[in-house]
Amino acid sequence: MSDYDSGDEPPDGGSSEPDDVFTYNGGRVDPGESANIRYGISETYLGDPVRIPVTVVNGAYPGPTVFLSAAAHGDELNGIEVVREVAHDWDHSQLHGTLVCLPVMNVPGFLAQERYLPIYDRDLNRSFPGREGSTSARRMAHRIFTNFIEPCDLGIDFHTSTRGRTNMLHVRANMSDPTVDRLAKSFSSNVVIAGRGPAGTLRREATDAGVPTITVEMGEAHRFQRTLIDRALTGVASALAEFGCHPDSSVHWPGWRTIIDDDDEKTWLRADAGGIVDMKRGRGALVEEGEVICTITNPFKEEDEVVTVEAPFTGLIVGVLENPVVYPGNPLCHLVGLSPDTRTALQRERRPESSQSEL
Ligand SMILES: [Zn+2]
After folding, report:
1. C-alpha dist (Å) from residue 134 to 127, 140, 142, 143, 278
2. Rounded to the nearest whole angstrom, what is the distance from the C-alpha of residue 231 to the centroid of ligand 1?
């Protein structure tokens, strides 16, 4: 069975249950051991393997198996650093359970620094749970899903906004599933957007397959944003504490929280004119009904042609465009309504010093 170096005896005195061994097609990781794996999920035009990096940290003590995944969209980098730091910088000597760390799932997209799999622009995050004998994207998804997702008890999948936009750190979760609800609330995010998610997304398909999973959205593509990465690391530590993986750690309360349900006020405000956008309020700003969020102007800045975009209701700017050019119909910002209590808590938290640009 397993070797316990450095005298790390598990509580049962060394006879690990078979359940504590993490197995995948081609290998196993025993309790008290870690493994860095390059796992083949496809082949290139040259016949070389396409391999994803996977780190499995199997704790010396029994507990849940949790996956942390990132870069299902190849240019969404913030989550990669979150997963790498959890896997390689944290002390897991007291870990109860197993962490399955998948920092880069969409390797072809990552290499090209593109959102989609470069082959026919397929979206890996609409291809789960995948299928053998299907498209290239579904075959890759299948290898990832069967080996590293299905064996887990819980999961957190990290994303950023789409290129050209940015968003507050927030959780997306199917809150009708009690374990997903618990995981979402334990992540220490101010904003949780409730919903099942589109078919083929990792979080929806994993949850439907019995692995309760949340998505964490944070910031923008093509960047490492340190403040957001640190907030996400706090969220991971808090979630792992909630499920007993690090029993000496505690669950972190974010100060205020709003859960946006389907019937709550929320909208993507879209441009009704093409032009150049002057955004007045940023990610994480609280805006009042009727307040000007941005203006859209033509190249001549002609004043009688200025289009003014106002907040249709009082709310929080969760997502906002960064690339300041729009066609009619392009999204400008994602605005969600807040209850009076939440507004009060948010305003109280922000009174000492404004850090809105870092949310
Ligand atoms: Zn994404």
Report:
1. 10, 10, 9, 12, 45
2. 18
